[in-house]
Amino acid sequence: xxxxxxxxLPDLFVSFQGLFVFFIILPxxxxxxxxxxxxxxxxxxxxxxxxxxxxxxTWKASLDSQSQSLLSSWVIxxxxxxxxxxxxxxxxxIITHIDLKSYGLRGTLSNLNFSSLSNLLSxxxxxxxxxxxxxxxxxxxxxxxxxxxxxxxxxxxxPHEICQLSNLKTLKLHQNQIGGTIPYEIxxxxxxxxxxxxxxxxxxxxxxxIGNLVNMTTLILNENHxxxxxPEEVGMMRSxxxxxxxxxxxxxxxxxxxxxLLNLTTLLLCENNLFGSIPPQLSNLTLLRxxxxxxxxxxxxxxxxxxxxxxxRLFTASYNNLSGRIPRSLKNCSSLYRLRLEGNQLSGNxxxxxxxxxxxxxIDLTGNNxxxxxxxxxxxxxxxxxxxxxxxxxxxxxxxxxLEAAKLSRIDLSSNHLDGEIPKEFGSLVSLFNLxxxxxxxxxxxxxxxxxxxxxxNLNLAANKxxxxxPRELADCMxxxxxxxxxxxLGDIIPLELGQxxxxxxxxxxxxxxxxxxxxxxxxxxxxxxxxxxxxxxxxFLPSSFDNLVSLSSVDIxxxxxxxxxxHIKAFREAPFESLQGxxxxxxxxxxxxxxxxxxxxxxxxxxxxxxxxxxFGFLVLSFMVLGFFLSFHKKVKCTTNxxxxxxxxxxxxxxxxxGKMVYEDIIEATENFSAKYCVGKGGCGTVYRVAVxxxxxxxxxxxxxxxxxxxxxxxxxxxxxxLDWRKRVDVAKGLADALYCMHHGCSTPIxxxxxxxxxxxxxxxxxxxxxxxxxxxxxxxxxxNWTSFAGTFGYAAPELAYTMEVNExxxxxxxxxxxxxxxMGKHPGDLISSLSSSSSSSSSxxxxxxxxxxxQRLPSPTNQVAEQVLVAAKVAFACLNASPMPxxxxxxxxxxxxxxxxxxxxxxxxxxxxxxxxxxxxTS
Length: 925
Ligand SMILES: *[C@@H]1O[C@H](CO)[C@@H](O)[C@H](O)[C@H]1NC(C)=O
Ligand SMILES: *[C@@H]1O[C@H](CO)[C@@H](O)[C@H](O)[C@H]1NC(C)=O
Ligand SMILES: *[C@@H]1O[C@H](CO)[C@@H](O)[C@H](O)[C@H]1NC(C)=O
Ligand SMILES: *[C@@H]1O[C@H](CO)[C@@H](O)[C@H](O)[C@H]1NC(C)=O
Description:
This protein is 19% helix and 17% strand. It is α/β, with parallel strands linked by helices. The strands form 5 sheets. It has a 21-stranded mixed sheet, with no helix packed on it. The longest helix is centred in the last third of the chain and has 21 residues, at 726-746. The site of one 2-acetamido-2-deoxy-beta-D-glucopyranose (NAG) has 3 residues, from loops.
């Protein structure tokens, strides 16, 4: 034999020579023709070992070259008992085991001569790439107890010859493409313990002969096309532990005889066409851990005594027509790990019928008729990750204690009758990635604590009664893909920070009362596919940055007051008329619109100087801005405020200014301590009053989060100096910038405030300047015949107002600069400004002043990211204080600069001088 062990020859050649030699040895037994091996008798003794090796080498030669190299140890001359995957009897060279599981072998079984391997006890070719049929000669392996061809690409049908292998204990053919029927003769395999035929294309019915297989513990027939009913004889397989018949076309009733299968721990009958009721006999199955009945046509009630012994972990009966209540035994089933009952007509009071399950990981009761309230006790379901109860009749509030189930990552309570507020405790569910509360009657604000949900991907709060503004903290949910807030009463401007949500794919803010412009920053939403801002009060021009929205495929901006040229992208060009209609004056290249008259003009209109101004009462404009609140007000809903950090809770109404107290007292007086007779509207969380202040102006004042009868405590606390930390101060600057940005750039006619100063900026209890809270404003309008007289406040007015009556938005920018400095210095910056402007050269003493020395000394120096933000705010402020209007930035630039999140400060904050802040390139770099 050694003469044939020429290692350098190709394997094919070696194998061929090997065969040739054996042919010589056994000329009378093996007539050498192509059918020789399959038709040979089961020769046993003479030269067995040579025959075995030859059979394997022949098969090896039939495999593809890569497979052959994997079997490189299979060479003539070496002891085949040492070959990869081959096992022999302890004594001798008779092959009893072939284990080539997961070798990636490619080829067929047709060249494997089973006759030559008749001593095999186990043959495991699991998880290879074998194709073709299972040869009928398989019956030659009559000693086999273990046979697995699973996870290959075998086709054809199960040869009934396989049923001659009467010693088989395990037969695994799952995950192939085997069709045909399960042979009736399968009942002959009486030693069978494990039969897995799942994930094939088997048809016809399960043979009743299967009842003979009394030693069978595992029968898995999932994912075939088996039809007919489940044979009653299945109840005879009393050793069964695991019976899985899911995903077939089985019909008829669930045999009551299954109640005899007392050893069953797993019974899966999902995704069939079974009908009738669940046999009560299933309650006998006291060892049952998994019971899957979903996706059938089962009717009637859930079995009364499931889980009597407390072993049931998984129970799914979703998508049937089951009715009635959750049985008591299931309510007390503390072993439950996964419960799916969605898509039935189950009913009952959920808070009574649903227990506390310490192990529960997943519950889905979607689409039933459950009513009652969410129980705070479910917060004790410590392992709960998924809570889905949408489309029921559940009412009442969401109990904050429910959200103590800290592992919750998916919550869907949509389409119920929930009311009250969205608890801020949602913010503590750090794992939450899916939160759907849409289609309820939830009211009040969206809690800003949701901004802590850094893993949140889907947030759907649509179709509720939510009011207030979108908390800018939502922009911290950096993983958001879908943000759906449509059909609420949300208002104010859209926070430009949302432009930081770079992964956002769907943004639906439709049918709310949002004001102002669509933020320029949305141009950064590179992955945005769907944008719906329809049915709002948005105004101004579509941001030119929208030309960057390359992924956008669906857009709806209808029914706003938008105008100007459409962005030059496909989504707008091809938008249907319905998605653009109802606006003020859109033009562009869309099929349904008229072309723009002069390219470029429309988008620049906002920058025109406003020469003619007319003082009008702020009230007119303000009442427009808060109109949405009036219209949406139906019933008085008591909203709690987000607790202001570090600040006395009773300070409901604060004004930033040394003379704020005076303004406040004017308001108190003018409204007779917030008497109802001056109330012009109530919002979800605030009340708006019409106030005629002593100098004759009429303004609207929105009192936030307070009781409408006014409370002297508010007043007492108000005069106190307000302790604002650095973060809040930066937020104040941001809020002002957003508000002015909206006024300057968001409306078709820029509204120039002209009198930004500390005495007329109102803040809510969270120190956020809302656009609707610009209480003391006088608004300017072009196209009128009056020139203005000097109306600014000394110390805040831009220098040019002293020598020209020409008013443009850059005077607001100047005032904004003053105010921002005041916010961070804690006092009016008049002296500082004059010292800096009088010292014209950069070597002057003013430029050498350290920034840290001019900051409000009542607070410790800012650190880290906040220090960076303070620095940016200071730089922005100085840029705004440019003596000539032209070089001052626009509010759009200012708002954008302030909204950017930045890494922590690298430089030494305490060494920065004011001179360094006067960076003329700050806005161009
Ligand atoms: C069934 O199992 C029992 C107990 O293990 C055994 O005694 C019996 O021989 C088995 N029956 C067959 C047909 O293998
Ligand atoms: C569900 O609620 C609706 C309206 O509240 C009510 O008409 C209906 O009867 C309720 N259904 C059930 C099954 O309680
Ligand atoms: C549901 O059950 C709880 C507890 O018994 C009860 O307080 C509540 O009123 C019930 N709800 C309804 C809608 O019947
Ligand atoms: C946009 O939202 C509104 C309000 O929810 C809705 O009516 C409209 O169908 C939506 N547009 C599109 C294109 O889906």
